[in-house]
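Encode chain A's predicted structure.
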Amino acid sequence: MTRIQKIHPILEEGIDRKVLAALRARFLSVNGERLERALQAMSTRQQQVLKLLPLLFHVNHPILPGYVSATAPAGLSGFEPDAEQLVEAQRLSRSFAYKPLRGKLPQPILGLFLMGSLGTVAQDEHSDLDVWVCHDPALDAPRLEELRRKCEALRNWAAGQGSEAHFFLVDPQRFTQGQREAKLTSDDCGTTQHYLLLDEFYRTAIWLGGRTPLWWLVPAYEEHRYDDYVATLLAKRFVRDEDVLDLGHLGQVPPGEFVGAGLWQLYKAIDAPYKSLFKLLLVEVYASQHPQLRCLALDFKQAVYDGHMELDELDPYIAAYRAIERYLGERGDSERLELARRCLYLKVNRPLSRPPRNRNKSWQRRLLECLTQAWHWDERQFALLDNRSQWKVRQVSQERRALVNELTYGYRFLDDFTRRLQATSPVNSRDLGVLGRRLYAAIERKAGKVETVNLGISPDMAEDSLTLVHGYDDAGDVHWSLYQGSLTPQQWPDFAPLKRSRELVALLAWCHRNGVVDTGTHLSLFPGDSGLSEAELFALFNDLRRALPLPLPQVGEEALLAASQPSRVLLLVNVGVDPTIPQNDSVNSEQFGQNATPENLVLSIDQVMLNSWNELLVTRFEGPQALPQCLREHFAGLTDDTGWPDLQVFCFARNRGQAITRRVREIFDDARRNFATADHGRYLLQIRQQFHLLQRIAGETSLASLGDRPALLEHLGEAHHAFSPIRLDRQALAGDDLALILPLGRPDCLQVFYRIVGETAELSVLDECNALWRQQLPYRDEQSLLMPLLRFLQSLAYRRNAQWPLADDLAPCTLDIHLYRIVHTPAGAMQLERRPTPQGAVSDPFYDVQAIIEPGDQGRSQVTLYCNHQEFSGLEYGAELFATVARHILARRRNGERYPCYITDLDLTGLHGTGRSQTVQHLRYKSRLEAALNLALRNG
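Encoded structure for chain A:
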């Protein structure tokens, strides 16, 4: 299309109706070319669906698709089918004869629009038809229900023609007021957004029939006074009300919408990361411009007014990419820009490393070639992305790190934006609970959780051949290694394993959950001295497949609004062990709480548990107390409302395997019956007493004098899991800052104090149970002093909140954070000064380092660190763990600067169980890990 004359309608000078008609004609011209592009990419049957939709909403004929009743709403405003549509209808049903409507009959379908990727560079043969059906606000509930049934019938018919269609009923009157009757799904943003949805509609919509958008006729520079401008147009009859459809304006987007829209894209990115992360980046671009935001839809409208009618540059995806490119380029975010380019390339889905399917290149391919030339991509990059369907564990794991980094960055950006602007999101509490928890369940790490590697990256991760090896590390601890291919013992040292694990079942569960092993995988076993046989290994995989068939069903909203609960439990007894004790053929339930005896045939239990959020967790119990410990854990989280999870028990030992399976199952069944019929609290107390579970009841602490200060600080820092007030005697701690700090302790509140002395700062935290944590650090400025701690505390709150139900009458457990600075008065006394929480920039230099602490062999704790989601395990690096992580961090810093590194997230559930640790315990581990890491940074 060529550039044509600009149009500047100015209301004060009077608007010529010819000018408005010319504007409408320009938009319809762009619309027609987009529609033609959409049809070019479709099969003949898909084209028939798209061409017939206006006619099928205009008439209500029993021999045509979509007919539900004679009274169903029909009649598309101002529509008359053209010859091509009538031909298509008669191909569908030869006996159909169109009869034009006579008189002024109601036409309740006001407008019909496609929106989304159709007609854009991102359209392919799998693109959905997202259709907005704008209807008369006067339709009553019964007729609306008939219209919904008609849409459902048309959806089914389109599916039979090879088209996936989604119809969205839109009441223009309610829509302009921000009211939509919608639930959050993968196809509908629910209550998360209005203006940004409208922005996407205006720049992507293809008009199919009915009234045309009134928004077309309002100049972009008048958007801020849209309502007044529209009122004048209608009052002075520049346009007729029956010719236009008013869906509202984009004059001002509330900041809370960026939060809602961003969270929805995060939600969708779990299953479709590339498309959704691209849109998430656009939300970030928009939010960064607030309050001077100019939506891309306004740029599109201005371009049409200015006569810039080049269809490629008006393409919604190209326009979005240009905005993202400018934004990231100005910030110097080259890695994120490369990810944005991969997202766009994969969404367009025109593999440039392969010849085109047809002799003539599609317009999408030509446009993509022009883009990638400017990116300076080589053939290797094209080949890598074009073969994504063949990516296996290594490529998928590497890409997952980039995607999860972006998901994490996006969430942090939205959180920071919300706090800075105190943005109130239109997301209701139900949608917000679904969004946050679905994201948590998909990507959050915790002890024992089997990580889902494939977040919509590769369709098939199954390996042709694998080698499973049992061995020992330098400290003598057992581990299992999984290698790609069929390797010999002589080859192992030359290859890096795909995955290492201390526990066999955890490794097998990871293989199953991620589809690394399927029925066609050849698996070579080198069991060492583990006692595992090939028969038992294959039986384990078969039972995992039967107990946990993939893919797992989608988690519903109700499950995510409640605390996670076990839904399926698989107990694998004595894996790789065959106890042969001839004098007993069953497990004696009276052994609970006793020392190991020769009669105990249960030497280990591996519990594989799938919860109601589709998280897969593996826990191992070993030794003579394995069975009572497993039974205790099974009942520990049960409440009156908890349903019994599906339980399966297997033991593959050649001697007495079936007897062990049967007896363990009987013990659990008996315990369940007792639990169901007894008083739950009393029964759990009996179990706890039987298994020697000790609980400390925290009382009131009295400090009569300062005494030994280090001993006092150690005493004050002890965890006690219940709020314990501290009573100060009159002379206690006189002149000490503790005298100011300790009386302020409050339950369910974190009190943060800091004192600056020269080049040193002292941080103190009174946690939710009134335990004290203290640390001295070099002081540079308040931002760098406080933000690492506050970010860490926020990550703990995020983990805690995920464990609470979010029903209408229950709120998540939140801990208020109060911040104080300790200052000296002119007289030399100390006093507290309440400080606001600083708002940290998302792009600050602090590096994301997550730690997971788990119990290891011989009473040692095992540490796994994740640096921007890249795993560094103590199992792999041993004593060199911190030195290795330090080198990794230094290599990514400019000029190798050696400023401190901070732990940003910490999981202790492997040591303390869910909900059993308090903040002071996390802070103590944080201090120790940071000390070791920063020592390695200084020495590296």
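Residues 465-690 form one domain.
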